[in-house]
């Protein structure tokens, strides 16, 4: 089996495993899971950069695509997690207007 087919097999199998894992998680655990997945994608991004440094041909193309997708997923995940965490922060109370004018 050629090296390119091996890499393609890894990608296809990882897609199927990812779909199976995510589909089994309840909706209440999506935010903590997303935060953990962001950290894992940082490791995947680092691994893809290391592979791209020593690969050539089709493996280099796959590594570059992996770098782009991992970076997009990692940044997007942090943005979504930040927005979700802002939903749980308390807002400061609104100031009541002073009766009878100002100064």
Give an overview in words.
The structure is a single chain. By secondary structure, the chain is mostly helical. The chain is 73% helix and 0% strand. It has helices spanning 3-23, 30-54, 58-86. α2 (30-54) runs antiparallel to α3 (58-86). The radius of gyration is 22 Å and the shape is elongated. The termini are far apart. The model has no long low-confidence stretch (mean pLDDT 83).
Layout of helices and strands, plus pairs?
Elements: H1 3-23, H2 30-54, H3 58-86
What's the short story on this structure?
The chain has 103 residues and is an all-alpha fold.
The biggest beta sheet is recorded as:
none
Structural class: mainly alpha
Rg calc: 22 Å
Order of helices and strands: HHH
Q: How many extended strands?
A: 0
Q: Shape, please? A: elongated
Q: Regions with pLDDT < 50 over 5+ consecutive residues? A: none
Q: Cα distance, first to last residue? A: 83 Å
Helix content: over 70%
Strand content: under 5%
Number of H- or I-type helical stretches: 3
Mean pLDDT: 83
Essential attributes:
elongated; mainly alpha; 3 helices; 103 residues; single chain
């Amino acid at each position: 089996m050629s090296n390119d087919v091996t890499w393609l097999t890894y990608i296809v199998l990882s897609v199927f495993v990812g779909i199976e894992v995510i589909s089994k998680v309840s909706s209440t655990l999506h935010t903590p899971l997303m935060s953990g997945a962001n950290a894992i994608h940082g490791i995947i991004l680092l691994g893809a950069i290391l592979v791209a440094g020593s690969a050539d041909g089709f493996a280099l193309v796959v590594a570059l695509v992996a770098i782009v997708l991992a970076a997009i997923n990692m940044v997007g995940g942090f943005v979504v997690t930040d927005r979700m965490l802002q939903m749980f922060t308390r807002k400061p109370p609104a100031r009541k207007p002073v009766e009878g004018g100002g100064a």
